[in-house]
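Protein entry
_____________
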Amino acid sequence: MNHNAHVVTDHQMKLCLTELTENMIRWAEDKLGGNEYAGWCLSFIEDALEKSSGIEIFGGSSAKESALLYADGIRRGIPERGAFVFYDCICQGPDGPVNWGHCGISLGDGRIIHAWDTVRIDDYRNIDALTALSGDHPKYIGWVPVERVLKQKENG
């Protein structure tokens, strides 16, 4: 038995997740109104988590692919603070229409911060009113808690 091992309690883990979530949201809010992530919603939410906390996560190559990777953790209803929120959305790819999806980070009050034409905040239920360049409108899939996103990192 290793007597030098450090056991992390549930309370300590909760505090770590809270700090990670708040750092991620603060980083994302600092980008509000900017257009450097226009059309790159998945890069935006991954950068928010990675750059704010000095970690690397392993998701899909598109929002839709990430939603499929996290499918076992997808939940419906109002997303909790820090959750990754996913939508189906047909976008114009180099070879025609493709479902790259759309995603954002939940602020926990029914709003998400996401990269569309600019980094912006919208009610998660109103994202379907946005129009992609393809003419499609995002359709809500659900959300995954940040703990599930981090579990993919462990499995990646």
Notes: Residues 1-6 have pLDDT under 50 and may be disordered. The longest strand covers residues 139-144. Residues 10-155 form a domain with the endopeptidase fold (from Nostoc punctiforme) fold (CATH 3.90.1720.10). The CA atoms of residues 81 and 107 lie 5 Å apart.
